[in-house]
Design goal:
The complex is a heterodimer of chains A (504) and B (486). With 504 residues, chain A is α+β, with helices and mostly antiparallel strands. In chain A, 19% of the residues lie in helices and 34% in strands. In chain A, strands 21, 22, 23, 24, 25, 26 and 27 form a seven-stranded antiparallel β-sheet that branches. A six-stranded antiparallel β-barrel of chain A has the order 1-2-3-6-5-4. A six-stranded antiparallel barrel of chain A has the order 7-8-9-12-11-10. In chain A, a hairpin with a 5-residue loop joins β26 and β27. In chain B, strands 9-10-11-14-13-12 form a six-stranded antiparallel β-barrel. By secondary structure, chain B is mostly beta strands. Chain B is flat, with a radius of gyration of 26 Å. Chain B starts with a strand and ends in a 5-residue tail after the last strand. About 3% of the residues of chain B have low confidence. The chains are: A alpha+beta (504), B mainly beta (486). At the A-B interface, α4, β14, α9 and β27 of A face β15, α3, β16, α6 and β29 of B.
Chain lengths: 504, 486
């Protein structure tokens, strides 16, 4: 009880600090010209994971960013993903300046941008953050071509935890309904209440008129993490759980009257995650987190939003490094474990869920194009990639731990073959998992670079988990033919990171 | 694009103008077959399946027997045959059926039927562009029909009846329509094929397929001992050796010979004899080209055609290179069972177990057709059952196919399409084993599914208490069927 109260107090303190940073203005009094917003014009050019040496055609996007800190504009990360050029445009004057990304988190779908021209935003006051509750009416801001702000009201209908666009994290979302007009070709817009920011719009479905807003608590967490020397984003417990309403399962797990309405069944504990390091195991029943009881559906009573998933408690209420006293039931015995919350950058995952802003790594060996399996590669099959992409690769990505166990490292694929005299008969090979090159195990493209230095009797021996199992290339011949191959196919280099400058 | 078997389903009336006169002789060989079939129900496996009528064609062969397609007589509950000039409908029965090559032999108890019939003589593989005539009882009228065309292509192709087999096939441009199935294709009065499948008109025009004589002959020979043993299968995969570097690395000359063994199924006859990486140079003395073709009787055919023509127990010899050393090995032919999981099956009853209102069925092609799912794990276990040799660990993949809602299983929705891993700690490899485990006396039945899911816990008392209720509510006539056959 005391703990819950302290918790509540800390939240209130947090809110007070929002207030201190914001100009004490209400929505009605936000002047059209000094509203703390800029139009953000973005040119995006994603990498082509099917042709990892090149980029796709550039596209343009626009969104409405909001001044959240001095000289820092907040937008969604999706807006600036793979951006090659960013520009701020002032609402009233139409004055423009180039901008750059300061901090970006593709999981939380948030980005802080700063102008290249230092005083570009100096006359604007940063906006504060505020909470909203179900039933609240908020205002979505859009920009008219004249620079006037078009305000549309939206009703907050649901607060829940849902998967964010990166697909690998579930965070709090405000669900609202509103009939927004189409402006500027995007729905990256701020949602305002009482002159303060409630959240950033990240999804809008014109048909159902439902919109998803990244709420203030997620933004606050992001801003706090952005202050750190190295960005450590949203921590996670590294577990999956299943609800435990089934009385037969409850009895089986040894739950009794003492645990009435409590407990979820831990089904999965990720390799090297916070949960695994703390000693959590699949089959444990999670009873409480940070002293707060977890109900049978995995929810806890949040002081601001009522019942929400403990995912919110762990990822957003807490920061990386916090230690949570966690109550479990194992073999019908209650136990307490200390779970130290970790943040794992997505690139550290065995199959990174996304690769944005960095060029895909590749290695072309005599026309064999080798790449690491990433979620970004699978997404090249379009929105239906889960059904369209090669089944085996989707299966590997989804059930990596189950298929490979621990310590497998990255998966290297033969993604395609560039036909040449060296690859006669190999043209149709694709989507094959490379297990060994020259008898050396391959757990990443780095291993490829090392293994090709050791041909066997003048041949590179490449082994796959699937048919044809093994093929060979003549080491000397492919070296001799490399310049021709590179020229024929217009390749900037035969491998990433070395011949090609990496990153922007 | 799917090939459809040319079976005439249901009574279709299609007014037709005059048709070409049928030559005299063929009247005495041609047979019309009427079938009442019952399709098994893999969705509600305790229900008898729906009954449908269909008709097809057939012809008399030596020994007072009728040859037709397997798909004309599959899942038959009642068969009758008629012939030109005899108004009587004769009751027929299936004597032999080959679902892998879509052929069947019928017998008629009443010897009267074969009076004045003429058995068709078997011919050869007709040459490309030569003319053939197709006889049968296709859609469009009641009397026999003939269509004529040329031989367009001789190829190795899929047989849609089983969905898993590929054998020699001859494509002709004569129309083959529903009802033609099982009918003879003649050239110079001799049988050159059995009409059996085609594309629907909106996919491809003038493409009909017939089963050529070697496949028919093989069937007739196989059943000589009184039973059908199916096609034999080396159950290996091979890789053409056309890449110069690969050839040199494997110690081969630049002579376009040899293919590499990529995998050897542990369930096949070559297991323990052939090895991954072996280079096959000759099969039964016939040199194997680097693209996997051999020359048989003047024709370039895939190496598997040698196996296609042989029988259970026949021995095949391979000349091979293993780690650069020439060797000779012999493989005694047999079939490989795992392939049946991905094949359409006939004359078999769905196997299942109902326990606690959950229906458990082994994964199979028939199962998936009745219970389509996008569940990634189920799809993987089906698609890669053979390639990844999943059958080694689980000869049968037992799936929760449906949940018959009851208070007992209110919280088990997550289990739909789950694959059973263990029951009370015992790994489940067959449906029979699953049945045995859930019929052992235990307090709780803990069913673990593959992957990270919470277990299904069913308390014995609760299961017993709900049993009659579920049975009567869902009209379950039988709680389990563990046998293939009726």
């Amino acid at each position: 009880m005391t703990r819950a109260l302290l918790f509540l107090l800390s939240v209130l303190t947090g809110l007070a600090s929002f207030g201190a940073q914001a100009a004490p203005t209400s929505a009605d009094r936000v002047g059209e010209t000094n509203a703390p917003v800029v139009r953000v014009n973005v040119t995006n050019q994603p990498y082509d994971f099917f042709r990892p040496w090149s980029k796709k055609p550039p596209t343009s996007k626009r969104g409405l960013g909001i001044l959240i800190r001095p000289d820092r504009i907040l937008v969604t990360a999706q807006l600036v993903a793979d951006a090659t050029y960013l520009e701020f445009e002032r609402a009233g004057s139409g004055e423009k300046t180039a901008a750059v990304v300061d901090v970006v988190d593709y999981e939380a779908n948030l980005a802080l941008l700063k102008p290249v021209q230092p005083d570009f935003l100096h006359d604007l006051q940063p906006i504060g953050l505020t909470l909203a509750k179900v039933g609240d009416s908020v205002t979505i801001w859009q920009l008219e071509p004249t620079g006037a702000i078009l305000k549309t009201s939206a009703l907050l209908t649901t607060v829940e935890i849902t998967t964010y666009p990166s697909d690998n994290i579930a965070l709090l979302v405000y669900r609202m309904t509103s009939s927004l007009q189409y402006r500027d070709g995007s729905f990256v817009l701020p949602a305002i209440k009482d002159g303060k920011l409630v959240g950033m719009l990240m999804r809008y479905d014109p048909r159902s008129q439902n919109l998803d807003v990244i709420p203030a608590p997620v933004i606050e967490h992001f801003l706090k993490a952005a202050e750190g020397a190295t960005y450590k984003g949203f921590p996670r417990a590294g577990i999956q759980f299943s609800p435990m309403r089934d009385p037969q399962l409850r009895r089986h797990a040894g739950l009794g009257e003492d645990e009435k309405d409590q407990g979820v069944y831990i089904t999965e504990v990720s390799e090297d995650g916070s949960g695994e390091k703390a000693g959590l195991e699949p089959g444990d029943v999670l009873l409480s987190v940070d002293g707060i009881p977890v109900d049978q559906d995995g929810n806890y009573p949040d002081p601001d939003f009522g019942k929400v998933s403990i995912a919110h408690l762990v990822t957003t209420r807490h920061q990386t490094g916090d230690v949570l006293k966690t109550g479990i039931m194992r073999d019908k015995q209650r136990q307490m474990l200390d779970v130290a919350l970790l943040y794992r950058p997505p690139a550290m995952e065995n199959v990174p869920p996304y690769v944005i802003d960095t060029p895909p790594d590749y290695y072309i060996l005599g026309g064999l194009v080798l790449q690491e399996l990433t979620g970004q590669y699978l997404r090249e099959w379009g929105n239906e990639w889960q059904n369209q992409a090669p089944q085996r690769l989707v299966y590997y990505a989804r059930y990596f731990d189950e298929v490979f166990g621990e310590g497998r490292g990255k998966l290297v694929l033969l993604s395609q073959v560039l036909p040449s005299s060296d690859t006669i008969g190999y043209e149709q090979l694709r989507y094959l998992l490379v297990t060994k090159i020259n008898d050396r195990e391959i757990h990443g493209l780095g291993d490829v670079a090392a293994a090709v230095k050791h041909p066997i009797d003048g041949f590179h021996k490449i082994e796959f988990s699937d048919d044809p199992k093994v093929i060979y290339l003549d080491a000397k011949e492919i070296e001799a033919n490399a310049p021709t191959l590179q020229k024929n196919y217009g390749l900037p280099g035969l491998r990433s990171g070395l011949d090609v400058p990496a990153g922007r | 694009m799917t090939l459809s078997a040319a079976l005439l389903l249901g009574a279709v009336f299609w007014p037709s103008p005059g048709r070409a006169a049928v030559p005299e002789g063929i009247h005495q060989s041609l047979v019309r077959i009427e079938l009442t079939a019952q399709e098994p129900n893999y969705k509600v496996p305790w229900n008898p399946g729906s009954v449908a009528q269909a008709s097809g064609s057939g012809f008399v062969v030596a020994g007072d027997q009728i040859l037709t397609n397997a798909h004309v007589v599959s899942n038959a509950r009642f068969l009758s045959v008629t012939r030109e000039g005899d108004p009587k409908r004769y009751v027929a029965a299936v004597k032999f059926v080959a679902h892998d090559s879509d052929l069947a032999i019928l017998q008629v108890a009443d010897a009267e039927f074969f009076k004045n019939t003429v058995a068709l003589e078997l011919g050869d593989i007709p040459t490309i562009e030569s003319t053939v005539s197709v006889y049968g009882y296709p859609i469009g009228g009641e009397r026999p029909s003939v269509t004529r065309g040329v031989v367009s292509r001789i190829d190795f192709q899929n047989y849609s009846h089983s969905g898993m087999d590929a054998h020699l096939i001859i494509q002709i441009d004569a129309a083959i329509n529903p009802g033609n199935s099982g009918g003879p294709v003649l050239q110079d009065g001799k049988l050159v094929g059995v009409a059996f499948q085609g594309y629907s008109g909106d996919v491809a025009q003038n493409t009909g397929y017939m089963i050529p004589v070697p496949v028919v002959q093989r069937f007739l020979k196989d059943v000589e001992d009184g039973r059908y043993d199916r096609y034999m299968d080396l159950a290996i995969t091979t890789w053409p050796l056309q890449n110069p570097a690969q050839r040199r690395a494997l110690g081969l000359k630049d002579d376009d010979r040899g293919i590499m063994v990529s995998s050897v199924s542990t369930a096949g006859p070559a297991h323990g004899i052939l090895e991954e990486g072996d280079v096959l140079m000759a099969i039964n003395g016939l040199p194997i080209a680097s693209d996997g073709f051999v020359e048989i009787e003047g024709q370039r055919l895939q190496m598997t055609e040698v196996v296609e023509r042989l029988f259970k127990g026949d021995v095949i010899s391979f000349d091979l290179l293993r780690k650069n050393e020439p060797q000779k090995v012999k493989v005694t032919l047999d079939r490989a069972w795992p392939y049946l999981m991905q094949a359409n099956r006939y004359e078999v009853e769905p196997r299942y177990v109902v326990f606690g209102g959950l229906v458990f069925q082994p994964l199979s092609r028939d199962f998936l057709e009745a219970n389509p799912t996008e569940d990634l794990r189920v799809r993987y276990f089906y698609d890669f059952y053979i390639a990844d040799e999943l059958y080694k660990e689980r000869p049968e993949v037992v799936v929760v196919s449906s949940i018959l809602a009851d208070p007992l299983n209110s919280y088990l929705d997550f289990a739909q399409f789950g694959i059973v891993d263990k029951v009370n700690g015992v790994k489940i490899q067959t449906l029979q084993q699953f049945y045995d485990e859930v019929h052992k006396k235990a307090e709780d039945y803990v069913i673990d599914l593959l992957g990270n899911a919470r277990p299904i816990v069913l308390e014995r008392q609760a299961v017993e208490g709900a049993r009659e209720r579920i049975k009567s509510r869902y009209n379950i006539t039988r709680e389990a069927n563990l046998e293939d056959k009726r």
